[in-house]
């Protein structure tokens, strides 16, 4: 897992380094100007899905998730080279939270698809030139895709670890119950044997 995160750090760093600084600045500008709208639209669309709605209460979305989504959009689309390692850690942390509360990975993937879909008209309605719009869109989508891949891989790893912990706990509980039953049976046999020989 550590090697994977190192590889993704190199890839994300390469994306930022190779992008024209003007294009990165425009992507950051889009993020700051439209993150609030994007987060509102994101949760409006995602919550239409009945499966997703199970995990997203209205209060939770309003109190925590919209503002967290705004920060995430700004962080990812404004990334500088020095930010990459911290951003990878953020994706890992978010994935662990998703796994802990049991959000299925397909809902996470759907969320990324929704975000890319609603980002498109925001970028193309800007007053940038046609070439700039295309470059900003490509940089933004590639940034989101890398973040998504890191989060999904970390999610799968965290979900697998959580499942193993649950399984270990169940096995431990079963073994404990079996030992208790055996001790009870031995005690009962001893008790009955003593009674028999009295």
Automatic annotation (TrEMBL):
Classification via InterPro entries: DosC_GS (IPR039435), Globin-like_sf (IPR009050), Globin-sensor_dom (IPR044398), Globin/Proto (IPR012292)
Pathway: Purine metabolism; 3',5'-cyclic di-GMP biosynthesis
Ranges of residues in domain Globin-sensor: 26-155
The enzyme's E.C. designation: 2.7.7.65
Domain of life of the source: Bacteria
GO molecular function, one term: oxygen binding
This protein's name: Diguanylate cyclase DosC
Species per Swiss-Prot/TrEMBL record: Escherichia coli
């Amino acid at each position: 897992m550590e090697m994977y995160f190192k590889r993704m750090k190199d890839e994300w760093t390469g994306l930022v380094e190779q992008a024209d600084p003007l294009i990165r600045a425009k992507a950051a500008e889009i993020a700051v100007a439209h993150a609030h709208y994007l987060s509102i639209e994101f949760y409006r669309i995602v919550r239409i899905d009945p499966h997703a709605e199970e995990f997203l209460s209205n209060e939770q979305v309003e109190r925590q998730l919209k503002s967290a989504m705004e920060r995430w959009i700004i962080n990812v689309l404004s990334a500088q080279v020095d930010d990459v390692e911290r951003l990878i850690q953020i994706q890992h942390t978010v994935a662990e939270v998703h796994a802990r509360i049991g959000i299925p990975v397909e809902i996470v993937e759907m969320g990324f698809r929704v975000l890319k879909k609603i980002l498109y008209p925001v970028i193309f309605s800007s007053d940038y030139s046609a070439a700039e719009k295309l470059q900003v869109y490509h940089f933004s989508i590639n940034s989101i895709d890398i973040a998504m891949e890191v989060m999904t891989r970390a999610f799968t790893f965290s979900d697998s670890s959580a499942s193993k912990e649950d399984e270990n706990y169940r096995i431990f509980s079963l073994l404990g119950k079996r030992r208790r039953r055996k001790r009870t049976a031995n005690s009962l046999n001893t008790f009955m044997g003593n009674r028999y020989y009295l």
